[in-house]
Amino acid sequence: MLGTKTAEHQTVWNYDFKWTKDHIEADAKQPMKFSYDKLAEQALERINIISPPPSCSSPQALRNADGGKSAASKPMAQPPTRDLYALLRDHATEDEKLGRLWEEVNLIPEWVDWDQIERGQKVFYRYAVGALTGLAFQGLIGGMASNRVVETLARTGGFSTKIARHRFFETFQHVLECTKSLSDIQPGGAGHASTVRVRLLHASVRKRIMTLVESYPQYYKHQEFGTPINDLDCIQAIGTYSSNLMFLQLPRQNIHPRKQEVDDYIALFRYIAHIIGTPTEAFESPSKAKAWMESIMLTEIDPSETSKILANNIIKCLEDTPPVYVSKEFLEVGSRWLNGNDLCDGLGLGNPGYYYWALMAGQCWLSKLVAYTARAIPWLDELQIAYLRQLLYRYIVEGDTLGGPSHFDYKYVPEKGKKTTYEEDAPRPDEAKKAFSIETVYLYAFVVGIVAMTLTGGLGLKLSLNVSQSLIAILPK
Predict the structure, then answer these.
(1) For the chain, what is the radius of gyration of the CA atoms?
(2) Which residues share a beta bridge with 15?
(3) Are 435 and 323 in contact (CB under 8 A)?
(4) Confidence bin at 77 (pLDDT 50/70/90)
(5) Which residues lie below 8 Å from residue 140, measured CB to CB, with a gap of 6+?
(6) What's the pLDDT at 400?
(7) Spatial CB neighbours of 327, under 8 Å, sequence gap ≥ 6
(8) Are strands 3-5 and 9-12 parallel, antiparallel or unpaired?
(9) Which of 249, 199, 148 is CA-nearest to residue 42?
(10) Exposure of 311 by Cβ count < 10 A (0-12 exposed, 13-18 middle, 19+ buried)?
């Protein structure tokens, strides 16, 4: 971990803050590495009895079952999938544990204000351009610097270059469903159901890894890394999409949401934390959420060799892909802009030249212009929110990107001997060479921004000179 510390002032990974009573010492966070959502795991055990999971739960397992003979002779059969949410819902009255979990996820805490939740949903789309940039560069790529969390991610196999892009957009689908409308996040809505599915998926991954550890202790260093997907990990994950966006990702693009917007957005993700089984105390207020974010940065962010592998693979899976066709260099500069040079050096990312930094500046200026213009004109704000809700869901979820809503099936199964590895650069596809890249838009935005600042600066200087001359003229001789 790269940082300095005094009694009050903290500097970590190019980020400065003051230590307050809301911040959490390392010793207080240690037990949370071993506490986790036991109710979801107990409910999963009951679901597995009612509807047993496929015995061959992955293509690799299927190949192992027949000695690899079928791999060359025919395509691998896909195991049947289960909808864990539907199984929980349909059998909640038949089992105590299932009933308790179903009651918990449908409980509306007294602190939930639906008007505030709805406003929080709109905040995401009001700052959508900056939010997408922040979640990709800081949340996804920068998030790989969490050296304990990546040990779980690497063991699912879901971060190879062929899979990571799809997995990223599945996660993004969850965000879109949680913000699509108020009814979507309320019990029975698509966002609510997806959140419950993700909660049970986490229980599946955790149970699988800990089962392997019982037979192969060397597979995963439990005492060093903590229980997979533990309470601290879950707070960090919710924070990536909430407090990090409000206090780190957008401000580093020089975009500053209003106080009410921050309050509303944190409240939305406090409710999502409740549904997904994450301790909600960390999100009781924006100040507390910010303190948790900073406390986690101080002790949990420290890139490892596994961090480098996953960050490298994510860069590769996103470069030169539709619809934006951004280059590896732009992805590296965007990561440095949002995370700082020290952290990205730790992740082993390249440091391209000034041209790509200019593109990123253009992107930030454009994001700020779009967001600030919309929020200043209420009717335009509502129009933009409605348009982006439809556009993003249609492209990401219904279009070719995912090809339909994901049910967050248990596809990436941890197995002995399986861990994500470093992948070399691939030749640039011909499609990307011919396609229009959004980097061109950012270049235009940078040029227009420079011209505008030059003209504004010139006018400001001229006005100052005129005012000075007027003052001189009226001053006594």
Answers:
(1) 24
(2) 12
(3) no
(4) very low
(5) 168, 314
(6) 75
(7) 319, 320, 356, 437, 439
(8) antiparallel
(9) 199
(10) buried
Both structure tokens of 178 = 């949680």
- Burial state string for 255-278 with b = 16 or more CB within 10 A and e = fewer than 16: bebeeebbbbbbbbbbbbbbbbbb
In angstroms, the CA 45 to CA 52 distance is 9
Residues 6+ apart with CB under 8 A from 265: 120, 123, 124, 242, 245, 246, 257
What DSSP element (H or E) covers 249?
none
**Residues whose CB is less than 8 angstroms from the CB of residue 92 and which lie 6 or more positions away in sequence, other chains included:** 98, 99, 101, 102, 103
For the whole model, what pTM was predicted? 0.88
Residue 62 predicted with pLDDT over 60: no
Is 2 a residue whose pLDDT tops 90?
A: no
| Adjacent-strand bridge partners of 5 | 10
Q: Would residue 408 be called left, alpha or beta, if left means φ above 0 and alpha means ψ between -120 and 50 degrees?
A: left
Q: What is the DSSP letter of 255?
A: -
Distance from C-alpha of 119 to C-alpha of 142, rounded to nearest angstrom: 28
Helices 96-106 and 38-50: angle between axes, nearest 10 degrees: 130
DSSP H helical segments within 108-189, as ranges? 114-126, 128-134, 149-156, 164-179, 182-185
Backbone angles phi, psi at 17, to 5 degrees: -160, 165
CB 343 within 8 A of CB 303: yes
Instruction: Report the SS3 class of residue 216.
Output: coil
- Which token pair is 353? 């030249």
- DSSP 3-state assignment of 9? strand
**Residue 93, number of CB atoms within 10 A of its CB:** 9
Q: What is the pLDDT of residues 267-311, one digit of tens each?
A: 999 999 999 999 999 999 999 999 999 999 999 999 999 999 999
Nearest to 179 by CA among 239, 243, 264, 258: 264
Q: For residue 253, which amino acid is it?
A: Q
Task: Answer yes or no: is pLDDT of 338 > 70.
Answer: yes
d(CA 132, CA 172): 9
Structure tokens at 389: 């809700």
Q: Nearest to residue 415, comparing CAs of 169, 167, 220, 256?
A: 220
202-219 burial, b at 16+ Cβ within 10 Å, e below that, comes to bbbbbbbbbebbeeeeeb
Q: Within the chain, what is the greatest distance between any pair of CA atoms? A: 102
